[in-house]
Write a structure and sequence with these properties.
single chain; 246 residues; alpha/beta; Metallo-beta-lactamase, Chain A; seven-stranded mixed beta sheet; 7 helices; 22% helix; globular
């Protein structure tokens, strides 16, 4: 068992509420450095934090919206220009590789045809079946959020610790399966009490909090309504630059 460091590089929404970067969590564990989601602003967030993107060997993607996977083309472009040689694994829902190539072509035409100096392996995570990625054991749980491909919550086991992340979703019991026993559960709370399809509000989460069974809950992906109330809710909330030691 070793220590794990989680750096919240981006805790924001697609609309950049509160001036926050889009979703990107940098995780350092023994034998693996990986990203949980890679929103379109992630490369800027990485550089602002003084981190070196070339040490990341794995990306774990929850769903195929730009604020969660849109940073991949920029990450690959940076890796190519910086002469990266180490392989990169990108794992997520079905359709991840095709959508990434489409995004690369939309942003930088012909870039998806460029032969990289490093190997990129795309892996489609099966639902509710653990997948081993080196020292990581990743389980994807289907959630409820339209993105043109199956959306997931992710449970990542590494170095004797477990990190769970909701992705974007309205309430579903899949979150219980993902979070139970987790040392850290990072969960969306887009709104305070308004019910919106495909997203989770704080009051709904609060009503189910006792069933989650996680050791530590941190809220993220908060809209302006939620951000205006964080000082009084009594639950830990993420912010860009936050560092969590497990």
């Amino acid at each position: 068992m070793g220590s794990i460091t989680v750096r919240i590089l981006g805790s924001g929404t697609a609309s950049g509420h509160g001036g926050r970067f889009q979703t990107c969590f940098w995780v350092e564990s023994p034998g693996r450095k990986f990203l949980l989601d890679c929103g379109a602003t992630s490369m800027t967030a990485i550089k602002k934090s003084g981190l070196v993107p070339s040490v990341i060997d794995t990306m774990l993607i929850t769903h195929l919206h730009g604020d969660h996977f849109g940073g991949i083309p920029f990450f690959i472009l940076e890796a190519q220009f910086s002469k990266r040689e180490s392989p990169l694994t990108i794992a997520g829902p079905p359709g991840l590789q095709a959508r990434t190539r489409e995004a690369m072509e939309a942003l930088f035409p012909k870039s998806s045809e460029t032969r990289q100096r490093f190997l990129i392996e795309f892996i489609e995570l099966p639902p509710e079946r653990p997948t081993s990625l080196g020292p990581l054991r990743v389980t994807a749980y289907p959630v409820i959020h339209f993105s043109g491909a199956p959306p997931y919550a992710l449970r990542v086991e590494c170095a004797g610790r477990t990190i769970a992340y909701s992705g974007d979703t309205e309430w579903t019991d899949s979150l219980i399966a993902a979070a139970t026993g987790a040392d850290l559960f990072i969960c969306e709370a887009y709104l305070f009490d308004k019910k919106v399809k495909y997203h989770l509000d704080y009051q709904t989460l609060l009503a189910h909090q006792a069933t989650l069974g996680c050791k530590r809950l941190v809220l993220t992906h908060m809209g302006s309504d939620m951000l205006s109330r964080v000082s009084g809710i009594g639950v830990e909330t993420a912010y860009d630059g936050m560092v969590i030691e497990l």
